[in-house]
Amino acid sequence: MKKYTIVSLAALTFLIAIAAGTVSAADTLSAADTVSSRTNVCNVVGTNYECGSWSNEQYPVIDLFGDEYVPLLANNDDIREAHVDKLAGLVLDSNETYTLEKGEKLDLGHGYALGARQITDSIDGGKVWLEFTRDRQYVADQNISVDSENNKTWTVVLDNVQGENDIVVMKVHVRQLFVGTEKSIFWINGIWLIDYSNARTLNIGDKFGEFTLEEIISGVDESNLGSLVFENVSVSDFSSSATPGNKPDKSTDKSTGSFTSWCRDLWACITMKSKATF
User: In 3D, which of 115, 118, 78, 123 has the Cα closest to residue 222?
Assistant: First the structure.
């Protein structure tokens, strides 16, 4: 009798240990999966301009769920000083060559355009008078000299972009020009533009689809330019429904119950076997 009782108790203890271990492992795996799928960290990175004349320069960019945005950055500021919480969509970063004549306009997209108001040539060097517009409304203009490489880039800076001043919104590089008796043309081989008119300031709690902004981290140095931390709303809601104190899912309860019943039946079988043997 004692022999079979000892064996029975050992068997039952073993089964309980298996059951407890199985539940613990499943719970741990579920918690890890929930945390990893719930949090999404989007980092600001430094990106080189496509234009070869600016290849040694970088601008900040952040990928938010498939769309590229540029944190607002003041002219001459270090890239780590970009405003992580104030973003504008990236419209253009191009090294394509565009040819324009006097009076022509180049459609840049999103309502922005670049027009050639005047092309002149002189002993001091050629100049191009460019005008930047949005929705046909004047924004800025500049005479660009092509006598030296340093003067071929027009950097457009604007004030009061989401409350910030001296923000770089566009860069244009004029490669060369030609002034003839019947036609004057010039070539652009670099354009960078952000959608500053539709820029937005982010706040904790803002939603991007199923994601909610949880934290805004400012830049520290060139290797850490800042980041945005999002929480997956749908995963969070699902996770909270399984927290202690709430009713467990029926399928989980059913699975646990069936295993418990199986242990009970096995114990009864062992007990009967021990009695019969006795």
Answer: 78
